[in-house]
Amino acid sequence: MKIIPCGSVASVHPPEKYFTGRVLQTPVIETEAPARVRAAVVSFEPGARTAWHTHPLGQTLHVTSGAGLVQVWDGPIREIKAGDVVFFAPGEKHWHGAGPKTAMTHLAMHEALDGVHVEWLEKVSDEQYAG
Ligand code: MN
User: Fold this and answer.
1) How many angstroms separate the alpha carbon of residue 75 from the centre of ligand 1?
2) Is 35 contained in some domain?
């Protein structure tokens, strides 16, 4: 057993090349093989969002506060709010983020395949974000 005390892991601003706007990420867990679960709490200020990306084994989001937006490639922008759970299938191209006027925080959970849990793609343009 391992207990990770609250306050022992730093929150970080993730790399700007993978996000638009102000985002704060707090790691929850990065398990060692053979386990492969990774999780993080991610907070997006209004207008902030991920770049387009995929997860090799899919991803579950649990929105813990606020209201935001998600979209899969060739799909409509969908609104999400606190309490909602979103699952992206393995390889499904998507983005997630805050609403234009509302902050959003979610717990992101995903598994790594051969050490890789995300494949980053192009940024979500302002035109794409505006729908
Ligand atoms: Mn994702």
Assistant:
1) 15
2) yes
Which residues have beta carbons under 5 A from ligand 1 (an ion)? 59
**Cα 120 to ligand 1 centroid, rounded to whole Å:** 9
Instruction: Print the domain residue range for 21.
Output: 16-122
Give the predicted TM-score (pTM) of the model: 0.95
Paired residues of 59 in beta bridges: 88, 110
Whether 3 is in a domain gets the answer: no
Is 113 part of a structural domain of the chain? yes
d(CA 42, CA 40): 6
For the residues of 42-61, what is the DSSP string, one character each? EEE-TT-EEPSEE-TT-EEE
Distance (Å) from CA 81 to ligand 1 centroid: 16
Q: What CATH number does residue 103 fall under?
A: 2.60.120.10
Per-residue pLDDT of 25-84, as tens digits, reads 999 999 999 999 999 999 999 999 999 999 999 999 999 999 999 999 999 999 999 999
The total number of structural domains in the chain stands at: 1
2: in domain? no
- Let me know if 95 is exposed, middle or buried by CB neighbors in 10 A (0-12, 13-18, 19+): buried
